[in-house]
Design brief:
- By secondary structure, the chain is of the alpha/beta class.
- It has 2 domains: 123 residues, Rossmann fold (3-Layer(aba) Sandwich); 273 residues, no CATH class.
- Helices cover 41% and strands 16% of the residues.
- It is built from 17 helices and 14 strands.
- The strands form 3 sheets. Strands 8, 9, 10, 11, 12, 13 and 14 form a 7-stranded mixed β-sheet that branches. A 5-stranded parallel β-sheet has the order 2-3-4-1-5, with helices on one face. Strands 6-7 form a two-stranded antiparallel sheet.
- The longest helix has 20 residues.
- The chain is globular and about 65 Å long.
């Protein structure tokens, strides 16, 4: 195995699901390591699996114009890379699977564009397992198994024996550097050039694939405006004014960035009883290095002391939780709370029929004042589980049996 390859947690999911499903689809943004992970697994399994990329124009044309011949040439087991370029293949893959059902025959990768997901859902329903790959989690970087975060003292105490502690300086270094495999493996050492190239080469190219009418200059300005609003409520009108576009376009472009796996939205928790909650989502990036680059922070030290320090800290914590859930093959049920009276809860995790309220604080000395808002959830029909403040405290601790103090190095 190549020295600069960092083992991915999704490997376990691919191997396991390949025993049950004929088709495995890995979606996610460019450069997060989808292809690399599958080719490393290809070496390990030693099945003679073929690899073919639809990035090659001639191969793509064959897949689009004669998918039956394409599957004759590239017989399963096969890796088909960038499958979104030839949605015509999906019907033929379905026919092949129905006639020759062999678990793990097709490993597909694709950037998560509209046509790809639509084609998969229409043609391969019940035959495909879809996994979402994100940039690296800290647990992948340090080589610790994934954890779908849960506010559970015994679980976290056990995890504390495996994890390395992080100082505030180290946290902001992680935030500023980001979590793209090419950066973490030191393949690319100039972050400014890496992220500038990433935007111009990959994001803009994929944006044009999705919508040929997008004004790329305005779109780049739009991404910067989103980065400046990370961890904030998504105000479409304000965004539209900043970039000189209309609100409909702003919503469409948010959808494009979501689809490409660059950003994710978290929606407010509400139910019929909690009627005073706001309805606006908050916006976050999967990779905080991209946010740091877009917003012009030249070093981790300057970022730590700057105006975005708290917002990007929150983004880092929430993105780590989200990544770890995806790495376990689980779609997280994660919300926030804010009402018209200004009461807020940073995260509400819904698991096992319970709500777990969580506050995020950069401080190393949280107080009970930080959890006073949690009682608004008592009106919810779901049981309230153990709460937590995720913060910079050095050790796992607690206010009491129902309210934990959790160092962020444990997530």
């Amino acid at each position: 195995m190549n020295d600069n390859y960092i083992s991915r947690h999704l490997e376990e999911q691919v191997v396991s699901l390949s025993k049950e499903y004929a088709v495995i689809l890995i979606t996610g943004p460019r450069q997060v390591g989808k292809t690399r992970m599958l080719t490393e697994l290809q070496k390990k399994e030693n099945k003679g699996r073929t690899y073919v990329s639809l990035d090659d124009f001639n191969t793509r044309e064959l897949a689009k114009t004669d998918p039956a011949l394409f599957l004759e040439l590239y017989k399963p087991p096969v890796i088909i890379d960038e499958v979104q370029y030839a949605p015509e293949l999906f019907t033929y893959i379905k026919i092949y699977v129905d006639e020759n059902y062999n678990p793990g025959d097709f490993w597909l990768t694709g950037s998560q564009v509209f046509s790809l997901m639509k084609g998969v859902k229409e043609s391969l329903a019940g035959r495909v397992a879809i996994l979402n790959m994100t940039p690296l989690s800290r647990r992948e970087i340090i080589g610790v198994e994934p954890l779908a975060f849960k506010v559970d003292f015994d679980l976290l105490l056990n995890e504390s024996k495996k994890m390395d502690k992080l100082s505030l300086k180290e946290v902001y270094e992680s935030i500023w550097v980001g979590s793209m495999p090419g950066v973490i493996s030191r393949k690319y050492t100039n972050l400014n050039i890496f992220y500038s190239s990433y935007i111009s080469t990959y994001i803009n190219r994929d944006v044009r694939d999705i919508s040929s009418t997008v004004d790329v200059l305005k779109f780049n300005k739009f991404i910067i405006a989103i980065a400046a609003r990370t961890s904030q409520l998504l105000n479409y009108s304000s965004l539209a004014v900043d970039v000189d576009i209309d609100v409909k376009t702003a919503k469409s472009w948010i959808n494009i960035l979501e689809t490409l796996g660059i950003i994710f939205l978290i929606y407010p928790y509400s139910n019929n009883i909690l009627k005073r909650t706001i309805k606006t989502p908050k916006v976050y990036f999967y990779d905080t290095g991209l946010v740091s680059h877009l917003t012009g922070w030249l070093s981790a030290e300057v970022l730590e002391k700057g105006a975005m320090s708290g917002a990007i800290f929150e983004n880092y914590v929430i993105s780590e939780i989200i990544k770890n859930y995806y790495n376990k093959g689980i779609r997280p049920r994660i919300y926030f709370y804010r009402d018209v009276d200004g009461k807020e809860i940073d995260i509400i995790l819904e698991r096992d029929g319970k709500l777990y309220p969580i506050e995020i604080k950069k401080s190393a000395s949280p107080t009970k004042k930080n959890i006073k808002t949690f009682n608004v959830l008592e009106k919810s029909p779901l049981e309230i589980g153990t709460s937590a403040v995720l913060c910079m405290k050095e050790e796992l601790s607690a206010f009491d049996a129902k309210n934990l103090i959790v160092p962020i190095w444990l997530i």
